[in-house]
User: Fold this.
Amino acid sequence: MKYKRILLKLSGESLVGDEGYGIDPSKLKQYVEEIKLAHDQGVQIAIVIGGGNIYRGAQAAKIGIDRVQGDYMGMMATLINSLALQSALENAGIFTRLLSAIKIEQICETFIRRRAIRHLEKDRVVIFGAGTGNPYFTTDSAASLRAIEIEADVVLKGTRVDGIYSSDPEKDPTAIKKN
Ligand code: UDP
Assistant:
């Protein structure tokens, strides 16, 4: 494997199955199988997972919820996905640690950069929950931030779209895939 330490950004939305919401166990399994392949090769893996399958802050205003409150709901959604992913990884025999940007003492550790790096050095898969911990950001920003902090060699992004397009291919049928 070319990379020693990677930051994997997984969208929450791609966890959605045929029911159109929530977490599809088969999608989760697919994520775990691919993560395990890289982990077995000795790659240190950190993951940021989104929350779009459960909640996005931008939806909040439409139902009369304050934007900042909505963003906190979105951050909680990333934690729900993180917990699901953590269980699925541990069921596959991979040791993990979930580090949250927002303190939730009973459920997971709080993000501390040096601690995250130590877990990675011990071959634990580290999941970063609650995004950056700040409203008005997305989990893509969280992925970039954490990648820099842990000195990852690369950020790899898993979404429903299979490459880079001139526009969003899910919305624009004329979108052109770039090589
Ligand atoms: N969010 C936030 N700050 C962050 C990361 C996420 O406020 O640092 C909120 C924001 O409301 C966002 C939601 O959490 O819409 C879910 O994250 P995102 O939309 O990035 O999920 P994805 O599209 O990857 O499923």
